[in-house]
Specification:
Blueprint lengths: L5 E4 L9 H10 L5 E6 L11 H10 L4 E6 L3 H11 L3 E5 L5 H13 L3 E6 L17 E5 L14 H15 L4 E5 L7 H6 L4 E4 L1 H4 L4 H20 L1
Parallel strand pairs: 1-8, 2-3, 3-4, 4-5, 5-6, 6-7, 7-8
């Protein structure tokens, strides 16, 4: 908690005809993770990428792969993504019951992979309480998952602050990631409240200069982090 702010560019907004080049660009600019949105068309109303993309990216970049599973059956598919080379795997609290979430976190960590839990905007932060001491990261969705390019939902920074309070009460320090509508205007708001990792899609890959956009968002987020911690 309160580590230097890092940017996790979401390849959902990249140019898939030149995906390797886009990933190389953000890697050279200092990306903390490469964020991979896996959607199954059931848990969310969209269908995106899967295991083959993770395998290919593992071969072409040294930046850790942050795989966000927006799927209905994570316990079945987790071994696939572990084998493919994911460095961090995020499971939604809404996709499983409490025991299923605990089992998913245990499976991920036993494989030597970082484990994370995500919550949708309408899901209370209390949903992560059963596993917050076991996970490496908590992902706060600041848009409804399923599509890129959405606007930031007001008040999402309050949920970041809730995670910080809960973690302090439990004596743990998971990373806090925010995903959805994050750019130069919204990054300071979530970082001031304690966000460590910022998922950026269009704000990076849709910019004229993606590398500079990444650095600019990181700079303004880090500045807000320092001011918020002062």
């Amino acid at each position: 908690m309160f580590t230097p702010v890092r940017i996790c560019p979401s390849i959902l907004s990249a140019d898939f005809a030149h995906l390797g080049d886009d990933v190389a660009t953000v890697a050279a600019a200092g990306a903390g993770y490469i964020h991979i949105d896996v959607m199954d068309g059931h848990f969310v109303p969209n269908l995106t990428m899967g295991v083959p993309v993770v395998k290919q990216l593992k071969r072409c970049t040294d930046v850790p792969l942050d795989v966000h599973l927006m799927i209905s059956n994570p316990l079945t598919q987790l071994p696939w993504f572990i084998e493919a080379g994911a460095d961090m795997l995020t499971v939604h609290a809404e996709a499983v019951d409490e025991q299923g979430l605990a089992d998913a976190v245990r499976l991920i960590r036993d494989a030597g992979v970082q484990a994370a839990v995500a919550v949708k905007p309408a899901t209370p932060i209390s949903a992560v309480a059963p596993v917050i001491e076991e996970v490496d990261m908590v992902l706060v969705m600041s848009v409804e998952p399923g599509f890129s390019g959405q606007s930031y939902l007001e008040g999402s920074e309050d949920k970041v602050a809730e995670v910080v309070r809960m973690a302090r009460e439990r004596g743990c320090a998971p990373l806090i990631q925010v995903d959805g509508g994050i750019g130069r205007e919204t990054a300071p708001r979530v970082c001031a409240c304690g966000a460590d990792l910022l998922v950026c899609g269009n704000a990076v890959f849709g910019a004229d200069d993606p590398a500079q956009a990444l650095r600019d968002i990181q700079t303004c987020g880090q500045r807000a982090r320092k001011e918020g911690a002062a």
